[in-house]
Specification:
single chain, 6 helices
Length: 247
């Protein structure tokens, strides 16, 4: 596969991924459902208009039938009165009206057949819409459940990453705590042995040794001075008369 072919393949994959991400199956289902409902409404309006036209023709047919009956009565009355001319005119009107009535019956039959077809289609479409509605709601529920599961999975993935960071932070804190505890124990041990004073003292080892010997010398000197003073005080207390005789 050449460079251009690989590039075109990558572009098509990116476009398909983008389209799949932006498509909303729930909206598509709702749109298809509304289209079916619109078609049902068109059929309902067609049936209503057709029924109205059929009723109008049926009313006109009743008027024509009344006219035929009227003309038939006129013919009979004209014959009784020996008015053949009037009888002929009444028969002509009766025949013309009967022809109109025949044409009207055919039109009404055609309208009735069309109406029956529309009603059958209406029933079929209504059943289809109800079935599609149930299927649509089921798919929507599954889609929402899948989205919720995806959100939970994404959230869990994020939490897992956060937990990993928290675990690493806890481990670092535990290590630092152990180091501090070890350091505190070491300082306590040095302090107990007196080595801490030597470590914290200023100067090098020779200076520390000289200061230590100087401190020991001061202690010894103060001890000797104290002994001498105490000896003098005891001597003065034991022989007070000797001092008086000498004087």
């Amino acid at each position: 596969m050449g460079l251009l072919e690989r590039l075109w393949f990558s572009i098509r994959a990116w476009v398909n991924q983008l389209l799949n991400r932006t498509a909303d199956p729930v909206a598509e289902l709702d749109y298809s459902y509304e289209q079916l409902r619109d078609e049902l409404q068109d059929i309902n309006r067609g049936i209503a208009d057709l029924t109205t036209q059929k009723k109008r023709l049926e009313l006109h047919r009743e008027r024509l039938r009344s006219a035929v009956a009227k003309h038939d009565g006129q013919v009979r009355e004209a014959v009784r009165q020996d008015r053949d001319d009037l009888a002929r005119r009444a028969l002509e009107k009766k025949h013309a009206t009967s022809e109109q009535l025949t044409d009207l019956d055919e039109q009404i039959e055609r309208l009735q057949a069309t109406q029956d077809q529309l009603v059958d289609r209406q029933v079929t479409l209504r059943g289809r819409i109800e079935g599609f509605r149930t299927h649509k709601e089921t798919l929507k529920a599954r889609h929402e459940a899948a989205r919720a599961s995806a959100r939970v999975a994404e959230a869990f993935t994020g939490v897992s990453g956060d937990l990993a960071d928290v675990n690493r932070a806890v481990e670092r804190a535990a290590e630092r705590t152990e180091q501090m505890e070890a350091r505190a124990a070491a300082l306590e041990e040095l302090e107990a042995t007196g080595a801490l004073d030597d470590v914290l003292a200023d100067g090098d080892e020779i200076d520390r040794e000289l200061r230590r010997r100087s401190a020991e010398h001061r202690v010894e000197q103060e001890l000797e001075d104290l002994k001498t003073q105490l000896g003098r005080e005891e001597t003065e207390t034991v022989d007070p008369d000797a001092e008086h005789q000498t004087a």
